[in-house]
Amino acid sequence: MSGAFRCQVRLQLSDLDRDVYGQRTIVMAQSPEEPDEHILLRFLAHVLFYDESLVDAHGFTDIHEPDLHALDLTGQLTLWVECGIPPMKRLSRALGKWKDARFVVLVASQEEALTVRDQIVAQKPRNLERLEIHCVPQVFMAWLESVGSRSMAWNATISEHTLYLDCDGQQGEADIEQLPVLSRFDSRSAT
Asked: How would you list the strands of the sheet with 55-56, edge to edge?
């Protein structure tokens, strides 16, 4: 990618909610047009939805790809992750195509979460019940942008849906909220 910046996070993760523990270096390219908030959401997605096979899928620059995805050993999609408000047509098509995958949208405010929910429900895609919308508080994102750099060491702990993050010696925490996409009455009409 021409003109891209190399960004990396050396991650140590203890996810007590899922009993998942990992350590890895995540390297991604940030295009000059990509906002810092978007790449930070991409790094946070690696923390919140940690999977050894989760990789960058270039969704910011490729209209057909998510931001991140994970495949199983047979090459089948298991996890599709969008960061920020995604193109609804892309998300709607993917929901219809990949019937066994988990779909996640990670946004940086309650307002964005509501926007995503309203826009995707209006699309009336198949399998909408498999979509999750997660929201990182704006104040946490502002803190992370203020302490973040192109190369960071993150020590992350998740307990009871709260993320405790040490970023290069600076500590922050955030309650990660999951917004319901459908009410139990809507789920019958979405399939």
From this structure: 55-56, 68-71, 77-83, 102-107, 131-135, 177-179
Token digits for 9? Answer: 């996070």
* Structural element, H or E, at residue 38: helix 36-48
Cβ neighbours of residue 15 closer than 8 Å, sequence gap 6 or more: 21, 50, 156, 157, 158
Would strands 162-167 and 151-159 be described as parallel, antiparallel, or unpaired? antiparallel
Report how far residue 120's alpha carbon sits from residue 190's, in angstroms, rounded to the nearest whole number: 11
Domains annotated for the chain, with CATH where assigned, are: 5-190 (3.10.640.10)
How far is C-alpha 96 from the chain's CA centre? 20
Tokens of 155: 């020590």
Does the model's pTM come out above 0.85? yes
pLDDT tens string 134-167: 999 999 999 999 999 999 999 999 999 999 999 9
| Closest among 30, 44, 39, 34 to 158, alpha carbons compared | 44
